Amino acid sequence: MGKRLSWTALAGLVTAAFAGGPLQAAPPESLPAEQLDFQAWGDERPADARCRGRYVMPGYRLPPPEPGKVASESSSAHYGEDGETLLRGEVVLRRDTAQLETPEVRVPPSRERAYAEGPMALRDQGLLVRGSAAELSLVNDAASIDEAHYVVHDQRLRGDAERLARLEDGRYRLSSASFTTCDPGDNLWRLVGGDVVLDRESGFGTARHARLEVKDVPVFYWPWVRFPIDDRRHTGFLWPTVGFSSDSLDYAQPFYWNIAPDQDATITPRWISDSGLLLGGQYRYLFPSAAGQVEGAWLGSDDAGSSDNPNDPPRRFEGEERWYLDYRHAGTLDPRTHYRLRYGAASDGRYFDDFGSDFAEQNTSAMPRLAQIDYRGDTWRLDARAQGFQKLDDPLLEQDKPFYRLPSLSASARWRQESGFYQQWRSNYSYFWRDIDETALPNNEHFDREAATGSRLHLSPALGWRFDASWGHLEPRLEWLGTAYELDYGNRDVGDRDTSLTRSVPVTSVDAGLVFERELDLGGRGYRQTLEPRANYAYVPARDQSDFPDFDTSERAFSWGQLWSPHRFSGSDRVGDLNRLSLGVASRLLEDGSGRQRLSLGLGQALYFEDRTIDMAGNPDELPANGADRYRATRDRSPLVANADWQVTERWRTRWQWLYDDDRERTERTGVDLQYRSPQGHALNLGYHWELEGFDPSLDRTDDDFRDYDREEYDVSFAWQAGRSLDLIGRLLYDNTNDRSLEQLAGVQWNDCCYGVQLVWREWIDDNDTGAVTDDFTDRGIFLRFVFKGLGGVGREADSYFEEAIPGYRSTAF
């Protein structure tokens, strides 16, 4: 669960914001690579290695002595009359896991301390410290080393200090020290400080007057800093985020609070020069049976008042509070019973467009709200919830406000017998409500229905029988859909419109298919080829639904899946009439050895025996008046549906879909995608997509995703590893119908041994929360992030967006 400061583990042991002393603290010059246990890779260099070599600790020169004893080895030994011992030559001392190598060691008569003259080397479990002189305790772990040069092998940390001392209480103290994760000889960055105290028992370090140097140039300064020296989470400042635009500075300084092992918080003051101070925060908890977080941000008064949308009035939000809140919680009451809570809200529909989020990728179209508990038994599944969301359209029309379910109660079950018979039960009761002014809606029958709120009870028991064999299947099924409403129209005058409505519709279907197989040899490899004809008949009678509301329903666009489904609508407010026979055939090519599918092909079409009179208006006696809708309702056969999925090689794959109206001889929708994936991390995507205007009946003309033109788009994207350290990223989404680029981005990522840089330029079309081209406008931005490995980074991460925009892209971990 831990979000922790960027400096890690033993990086703290001999690293950190080492400060102390004056800001001008100057560590000694670094040693060459061969004196720091550094070995260049040579021919055995791994393919993914970004460093020139690795640190390798040599074996101990002496076997381990008895606990508490000191073993020694030297070329000569001299014992003075006063009891002093002087060891010369190749002197080696070992106590437990610590080993000292030096030309000369002097041990006073007390035998409590030893003094080493350099150049000396002290080793201890992956740690190397070289120095000019050292003083070591022979009774405990205290030590002091002058002109120290240290390496922590596993963490790839190295640095230098005028003096490194281990105190009797176990803490470490460094003077004029530095730290970096760069290879020896490369000081692209390092942290330099004066007085540093490290406490391994508590896991903390403190430093005064610390500075970050890039190529020996100071770029950041801390007068005092507290930092972690192990993997435990610690309270402290995180790296800042800095953004610039032509007329604004955006600076955020996160502070991490480790409240308890199972709780933490991040507090982020953010200064936006033309808007003011935005205070953000996130609190997280992780308990044995529950987890959650609450986050948000608040701006007391927007000084700029402007939106990124050029269609908004000037300084529209000036002086207004702007904020968002998002609470999430999930837990279990027992192994079968789970619950979830969610509440999200924002001050306005433009908040995330203007300010983004400091903590996570937010859904910029809606803020969900949910209280849910569900039980999953062997037979029954029960679900109770209160659910809704704030729609982040701006402006938001009354008729576009979403419905809340207060509450929604569901129960479902399924029984199956060995004979093949099965029974299914599904039921739902929901009360739908939304906060609108009913009288403000336009005065027509459609908006009379839109004004309704109230309850809906929906029952859908089903009975079926399924025969399954390796050579085919047969499944007749009967489902009964019963729905009852109790409606309220508020202050709207709807005349004598009924408020109590019922509907009962039987849904009958028969699904059957055969599977033929043959062995096939292609290119010396064995395959199985299948031929799978399939037929599906569905009958649903028409019922008058013209007075029924539309709480959660939309008509589905035609697809391969719709060939085999009797349901023309999603949701429960409409049941579409249907008298249809679907015929199709599929073929697959399977590898004999693994059973892996290499190629699949499908072709199908539906034949209609009656017109489909039920649309969203619900009147069975009237066909749609609109030309496209009327044609869709009266055509005697569906478009031909063809698809293919071909795994060409281990790296190349292509998918294709085509919906063709063989009556009017025109394509209604088509798309082809070609993908390349490489083990080295390369990804290439080529796509072409065409869709007839109005093809998807679920979209209203005011919806964001609606296109008031025949959509023809080209999509090209790639992520290419140009070298061990260099990644190139790019995308072009082109609207050929309107001769414009919907999105362009180009980026470069340099991922070296000790640092990483992301630089990305992006330009895109914002749809302004409408489906009209005239409302669209262009937005653009440049994003920069750099990371010092072992310290952290500055700038906002773009990886999550890249992985969504460029399929197959996986960022190299910084």
Your description of this structure?
- A hairpin with a 5-residue loop joins strand 38 and strand 39 (597-608).
- By secondary structure, this protein is mainly β.
- It is elongated.
- The strands form 4 sheets. The protein has a 32-stranded antiparallel sheet that branches. Strands 3, 4, 5, 6, 7, 8, 9, 10, 11, 12, 13, 14 and 15 form a 13-stranded antiparallel sheet that branches.
- The longest helix is centred in the last third of the chain and has 8 residues, at 627-634.
- It has 4 helices and 49 strands.
- Helix content is 3%, strand content 54%.
Number of helices: 4
Number of strands: 49
Unreliable stretches (pLDDT < 50, length at least 5) are: 1-22
User: How would you classify the helix and strand content by structural class?
Assistant: mainly beta
Fraction in helix: under 10%
How big is the Rg?
A: 35 Å
Proportion of residues in extended strands: over 45%
What does the main sheet amount to? 32 strands, antiparallel
What's the pLDDT, averaged over the residues? 86
Indicate the overall shape.
Answer: elongated
- CA(first)-CA(last) distance: 19 Å
How is this fold's topology laid out?
Blueprint: E1 38-40, E2 53-55, E3 71-73, E4 76-79, E5 85-95, E6 98-107, E7 113-124, E8 127-137, E9 143-152, E10 157-166, E11 172-179, E12 189-193, E13 196-199, E14 204-214, E15 217-228, E16 236-237, E17 241-245, E18 248-252, E19 255-260, E20 263-272, E21 276-287, E22 290-299, E23 322-334, E24 337-346, H1 351-355, E25 366-376, E26 380-391, E27 404-416, E28 421-433, H2 445-450, E29 453-459, E30 462-465, E31 467-469, E32 472-488, E33 500-514, E34 516-522, E35 525-540, E36 554-555, E37 569-570, E38 578-591, E39 597-608, H3 627-634, E40 640-647, E41 652-661, E42 666-677, E43 683-691, E44 711-721, E45 726-735, E46 740-751, E47 755-766, E48 777-788, E49 792-794, H4 799-805
Antiparallel strand pairs: 1-2, 3-5, 4-5, 5-6, 6-7, 7-8, 8-9, 9-10, 10-11, 11-12, 11-13, 12-14, 13-14, 14-15, 16-19, 17-18, 18-20, 19-20, 20-21, 21-22, 22-23, 23-24, 24-25, 25-26, 26-27, 27-28, 28-29, 28-30, 29-32, 30-32, 31-32, 32-33, 33-35, 34-35, 35-38, 36-37, 38-39, 39-40, 40-41, 41-42, ...
